[in-house]
Every structure is written in structure tokens, then in C-alpha cells.
Amino acid sequence: MSDETIARIQPYLAELVAIRRDIHAHPEMGMEEVRTSALVAAKLREWGVQVTEGVGKTGVVGTIRGRLPGQRAIGLRADMDALAIVETTGAAHASTNPGVMHACGHDGHTTMLLGAARHLAEHPDFAGTVHLIFQPAEEGRGGALAMLADGLLERFPCDALYGMHNSPGMPVGQFGIRRGAAMAGGCMFHVRFTGEGGHGGSTPHLSVDLSIVQAHFVLGLQTIVGRNISAFDPAVISVGHIGGGDRESANVMPAEMSVSGTARHYSDATKVIIERRIRALAEGLAALHGAGVEVEFVWVAEPLVNAEEPTDVAIAAASAVVGAGAVNPHMAQTGGGEDFAYMLRHRQGAFIRVGNGEGSAGVHTPKFDFNDEAIPYGVAYWVALVKQELKL
Questions:
Q1: Which residue, 203, 164, 81, is CA-closest to 352?
Q2: Measured between alpha carbons, how far is residue 384 from residues 4, 270, 380 in Å?
Q3: What confidence tens digit (pLDDT) does each residue in 162-220 have?
Q4: N or C, fewer C-beta in 10 Å, the chain?
Q5: For residue 195, which phi and psi values (nearest 5 degrees)?
Q6: Global pTM?
């Protein structure tokens, strides 16, 4: 790790850990981060950072200008929201908000960016401007889109954007990233088949057997990835719910059956194929069997794409902190989604992973807790990134 940066962080590292645990103990769902946003704004002001609140409802943006002349500006983004999960960590700083917990490490992400804010405010030895973007509602409630709709990039112009997320299973003190499509875009799809119901024992021939329609549909879904999408373009289609009829009326052929699931993709072209083929399959089978059908897609994420030059900058910054041997530049793609991808649609940038420890529980599980040992690595990375991007 960078001796200079870590030496300057040490005097207030305990305070950063306390902030992280305080946020963890008081989790808030997306667009409800009132306490968290107020804490972030108060700390930024305490450290002399220019603050704008209420960006995208509960978002906060801090602005630090370097003491050296320069016109370039970058944005560093952290997320603040929690998840609707009952915590079972048993930690002293466990959630005090029943049914809500920081199960994805956003408490740590926020803290690491706060630590970088304090360091950069005290040592603005860079040329240009840094916008510290504390985003609400990453977990499916549209926080990135809300900030963009509120003029984020017009009010706080950025030439490049950077994000960071913890990675359970990766040792503390290591980083990982990949060029190009790194995380998936995805949707929830809902298909509703309708038809004439009836008695399954005495008059099945007078009804539309929707169980057959949905069975062919579910099987047909599995041909889309294998036969409509290139083997060199990863994609996933999975069914998560099938509903129809009533167990207490098993002799009744239902007049309605539903199939819902998720799809993941890494390119715009694949997204188009997935939606077109699911819709065509549902409509074709319904027509073949004399059924009605309704098809709905709810796209919840875009593929997260790391641009070439910002990825090089991110790798160089991480290497400056932990050495090139502790930075994996070819990290595998993940099927998870990240709404920072919407910001990267408007400005080039890069999203890096920081190790949360080999023994860490997985994200989105009741036992997950951000590893405080990762805080100085995240802070040092942000500081090194600014030095890489905003040098003379």
C-alpha cells in the first residue's frame, strides 16, 4: 500500500470505521436514505468540502477543486442504500432497523469515499475537479437514473466516472477489474396465458389446456440462448415462478397461467434478441393452442461496460496502492447487475472490485458484513486514482 497515503489515513482510520458501523447499524432502503445522506453531507462540510444535497431525491454530491490549474473533472461514485433482509451477523453494530440491513457493503463504499474526501480536502494536490457522488437506491429503485434525470452530469460535469464495489472471496488488499462488458444487464419477464378453463376429468376437450402451453413455453425458452444467440455472447434465461389453478381444485383446468423469470445479457444486440424471441415464443404458442397471452418486460439494468482508457487508469491506480501483482486485470464477468452502468452510458469510466476477504459471506445474504480492513485500501485507491487522472 502507498506509504504516504496510509500514513495520512491512520490518524482518522478509527473514525472511518466508526462511521461505517454507524451506517451499518442504521440501514435505509433506496430513496429513504435520509439519515445516511445527512451524515454524509455533515461530514463533508466538516472537512471543508462543497456540498449539494437532494440530487435525485436523497443523493449527495461533494465537490473538491485541486490547488493546481486544470480543466479536467472526474466523478467518483459510491452507493448508500440497504436491502430488505433480516440480519443474522450477530455483530455489535448490527442493524437496528428490523428487516433492513446493509447486505451488499454500501456502508463500506460510502465510508471509503468519505475517507477519500477528507484526504483530498486536506491535500488537494491535483489539477482539476473531483465530484464525489453519493448515490441513493442502487438496489433496483432507480437511483442512478434519478440522479441523471436531476441533471447530475450537467450540474457536475465529468470527463470520466469511476465506481468501486467490494468482492467477497477476494483477499483484502487485492483488486480486480476487466475491460469491456463486466456486469450484466437484465430484466424480469412476466407472461400470462389465458383461455377457456373447465373440468379436467369430464370435459378437458372443451377447454384450452394452459398447462401444455406453459410447458412448451418453459422448454422453448431454453432454446433461445442455445440457438438464437452466438455461443461467444453470454446470456442467461431462467424461470423463477409458474402459477395457475388451485391445489384444492386439482380437477379444474385453470383459465389463467403465468410464467415469470429473469434474463441477463452483455450486449444491446442480445437484449433485442431476448425480448423478441420470448415474445414471439409466447405469442406463437398461444396462437397454436387457441389461448390468449400478455407479455411484459421490466428491464432493470444495462450491461456495465468498462472503457479502455479509464480501465488502464484504474489498473494503474490500484497497482500504485498494492502492487501490480495484487491487481487482476482479467476478472471474470458476473451475472449480477449494477445501476452505475446507466451513468457509464453517458460518460466513459471504469468499475473496480476491492477484496472483502476470503472468509466473507456473500453479498445479499443475512450474514454479510463489510470488512473494515478493506477501508484503507479503498481510500488509498480513490486518492491514487485522482492522482492518475488529474495530474499536470
A1: 164
A2: 11, 36, 6
A3: 999 999 999 999 999 999 999 999 999 999 999 999 999 999 999 999 999 999 999 99
A4: C
A5: -175, 180
A6: 0.93
